[in-house]
Amino acid sequence: MDLVTLSRLQFALTTVYHWLFVPLTLGMGWFVAFMQTRYYQTGDETWRKMSKFWGKLFLINFAIGVVTGIVQEFQFGMNWSEYSRYVGDIFGAPLAIEALLAFFMESTFLGIWVFGEGRVPQKVHLASIWLVAIGSNLSALWILLANGWMQHPVGYVINEVNGRAELVNFFALISNPRGWIFFWHTISDGVLMAAMVLIAVSGYHIFRKQNVDLFKRSFVIGSVVGLIAGVLVFLGGHTMGQYMYETQPMKFAAIEAHWETSQPADFSIITIGDLSGKREVWSWRMPAVLSFLACNNFDCKVTGVYDIQAEYEAAYGPGDYIPLMVVTYWTFRIMMTFGFIMMGITAYFVWANLRGDITKAKWMKWTPALLILPYLANASGWILTEMGRQPWIVQGLLKVQDAVSPNLTTVDLLISLIGYTVVYGSLAVAMVKLMLKYAKAGPDAAMHESVDVAPALVGADD
Amino acid sequence: MSYEFLQTLWFILIAVLWIGFFFLEGFDFGVGMLLPFLGKKDVERRAIINSIGSVWDGNEVWLLTAGGATFAAFPHWYATMFSGFYLALFLLLVGLILRGISFEYRSKDAAPAWRNRFDWMIAIGSFMSALLLGAAFANLARGVPINADMMFTGNLFTLLNPYGLLGGLTTVAIFLLHGANFLGLKLEGELRERVNTFAKKLWVVTTVLYIALGVFTYAAGFWARGIVNPGIVPIAAVAVLLVAGYFINRKMEGWSFIMVALNIVLTQVTFFSMTFPNVMLSTTNPAYSLTIYNASSSQYTLTVMSIVALIFVPIVLAYQGWTYYMFRKRISNDKKELVY
C-alpha cells in the first residue's frame, strides 16, 4: 500500500477508535452531575449510589478517551505535515484553545472529583463534576469548529506569497454554522449514547431483581432523556443535511446515491450499485422526499453526482471527485436506521412506564443488546462525514493526497499502524473487562474507590 | 503589537509551556519510574500512585497545550518536528498511553498479576517518555538535517547519536531525582525513609550525567548559536543541583525539591536561549533552519491567540495551583484513605 492509503487507514483507525469512547464521556458526565445534584438537594442515599455507580463506569470509559486523544492532537503534524503547514494558521488556533480552555478544565476537576470526596467541601465536589461535564463538551465544541472549517472553510484568504490559507476573521471561524450544528448533533448524540448505556445496564439488573429501585430510576431517566436527545440528534442531523446540500453538494448526493440531477428529487430507500460504486444497478425510491431533506419543500432541484463531477472538473481540473459511494450511502443508512430505532424504543419505554410497572416486563431481559445501536450509529456517522468529503481534506482547497507527510516511508507507517492496532486492541480488552465487571457488580462495589476494600463484591479473579 | 514582537512573545510562551510541563510532569515521570522499585507491598505502591493521582492528568495537559500552541503559532515548526521525529514521537505516545491508562486501571482489579502488569507499564511508559523527550530536546539543541523545503531528511537513527542519548539519559536521571524529592514531600513513615535514601544515590548519578551533558554541549560548540548568550543561567543550573545534594543529605525535603525544580527550569531556559531565534537548527545548511520568523503564523492569528492566552492562562494557573494547595497533605498507608 502507498503512503497516502496507509496514512488514511491509520487516521481512520485512531479516530473511529477514539470516537467509540468520547460520546459516552460527553453524555455520561451530565447524568452523573445531575444525580449528584439530586443527592445534594435531597440527601437521598439512592441518588448518591447512582452517581457513584454511573460515575465509576464514566471513569473507566473516560481514561481511554484521554490517552487516545493525545494521539489525535499529535498526528496532524506527524502524518499530515503538509496539511499542517497549509492550514496551521487557522486550524491550529481552535486546537490550542481546546487544550487551554477544555483539557485543563476537565482533567484538573476530574482529579478533584475523584480524589476530593471528603477532602473538599461538598459544594466544591459537586461543582467539580459539573465542570468536568462542561469541560469535555467544550472540548467537543472546539474540535468540531476546527472540523467544521474543513467541511466548510470560512474567514480565510489564500496568501499568494507563501501559498497557504490564512485566517482573516476569527469570528467567522468560531461562528461557522457548520461547526455549531455539528456540535448540536454531537452533544445530543453523546447524551443519547449515555442514555442507552443507562437503559442497557439498568435493564440487566432489573431483570435479575437487583437494586430494582435504583435501576428503575436510572432506566426511566435514560428513557426520557434518551427520547429527547434522540429527537435533538435527528433535528441536528436534518439541519446539517441542508447545510451540506448548500456547501457540500457532492457529499449530499453521494449519501443518497443521487446520480442524475432531478426536480423534485427521489429519496432512495435501497440502492444497489455496481462494484465500482459509481453506477446504479437497482433501486427502490420514494418520490420527492430527497427534495424535502435538502430544502424542506417537495420540489426543489437536487444536483446529481455526475453533474457535480463535471462541475468540479471544470473548476478544479481533471480528477475523481466522487467519494466512495458504497461507504457514504450505507453508513448513512445504518446511522439513520439505528437512530430511528433508538427513538422508537425510548418512546416505547416512556409509554410503558406510564402504563404500568416496567420492572416485570419480559423484554427487560433483552435491553443489554440495545448497546450495539449507539456504537454502530456513532462509528457510521464519523466515517460518513469524513469519507463524504473525499477527495478533499479541506473542502475545495486541499486534497488528501497532497496533505500527507512526504518524508515518511511505508515502513514508518507500517510500524506505527501495527503498533497502534496492538496497543489499542489491548486497551479495549482491559476496558471491556473492567466495564463488564463493574456494570455487573452493581452499586455496592462502586461505593468503594478500589476493589481492595470490597474484593468479595467485585471478585478478585473473575 | 508588531509582528516581530508577537513572534518573540509566542516563542517565550511556548518555552513557558515546556518549562511547566518538564517541571510538573517531570516528577510524575520520576514517580512512575520509581514505582515498582520503591513500593515493596501493594499498599505502598498504591500510596505512591495516589501521591500523583489527582494531578498527573492535569500536568500532562501542559504537553498538549505546548503541542497545540506550536501548531497555532508556528505551523512549520509543528509540521517539521512532528513529522521528522515520527517514530520517536510514536514511541512517546505509546509510553504516555501505557502509563496513563495504568494509573486509572491498576487498582480497579484485585488480582496481583493484573496490578503488577500495570505497575510495570507505568514504570516503562514513564521511562520511555522521559528518555524520548530528553533525546528529542538534545537533538533540537544539536541540530537535525533539514532541507531547503523545511523537511527533515533523517530517520530514527539520526536522533540516536551520542549527544541525543546522553540528553535522554540525563533527563531520565533528573526526573527520577525530581520524583524522589516529590515523594519525600508526599509520603510518610518507612516509605519516606526509603525514598530519601534513594534520593542520595540518585543525586550522585544525576550530577555526573548533568555535568557530562554540560561539558559535551560546550565542547561541541552547541553553545549560543542563536543571538542570545545563555551566560550565567547554565552555571546557576549546575550550582542549584550541587546545592540540592547538600539538602538531600540533610533530609531537608522542601529545599531539595525546590533546588532540583530550579535546575529543571534553568536547564530549559538555557535550552531556549541557546536556540533563539531558531526553533529548529538545520545541520544541512544553517540557512535552512526554521526560525520564529519563517515558521510562524500570520500576525492576525498571533494577535488573536495572544488575547486568548492573556485571558485564560492566568485562570488555568489559578485553579491548577489551587488543586495542589487542596491536596497538600501527605499520603498515608491506610487503605481506607487511598483512592486508586
Please give a structural write-up.
The complex is a heterodimer of chains A (462) and B (340). By secondary structure, chain A is mainly alpha-helical. Chain A has one domain. Helices cover 71% and strands 6% of the residues of chain A. Chain A has 15 helices and six strands. In chain A, the strands form three sheets. In chain A, strands 1-2 form a two-stranded antiparallel sheet. In chain A, helix 4 packs across helix 6 (177-207), helix 6 runs antiparallel to helix 7 and helix 7 (212-247) packs antiparallel against helix 11. Chain A is globular, with a radius of gyration of 24 Å. Residues 453-462 of chain A have low confidence and may be disordered. By secondary structure, chain B is mainly α. Chain B has one domain. In chain B, 75% of the residues lie in helices and 1% in strands. Chain B has helices at residues 3-38, 42-53, 56-73, 75-84, 86-105, 112-142, 156-159, 162-186, 189-219, 233-249, 253-275, 299-326; strands at residues 278-280, 290-291. A two-stranded antiparallel sheet of chain B has the order 1-2. The longest helix of chain B is centred in the N-terminal third of the chain and has 36 residues, at 3-38. In chain B, 57% of the residues are buried. At the A-B interface, helix 2, helix 3, strand 2 and helix 13 of A face helix 2, helix 3, helix 4, helix 5 and helix 12 of B.
- Written as H for each helix and E for each strand, in order along the chain, the element string of chain B is HHHHHHHHHHHEEH
N→C terminal distance of chain A: 42 Å
With strands numbered from the N-terminus, the spatial order across the biggest sheet of chain A is 1-2
> Domains counted in the coordinates of chain A: how many?
1
Q: How many strand elements of chain A?
A: 6
What oligomeric arrangement do these chains adopt?
A: heterodimer
* Range of helix content of chain B: over 70%
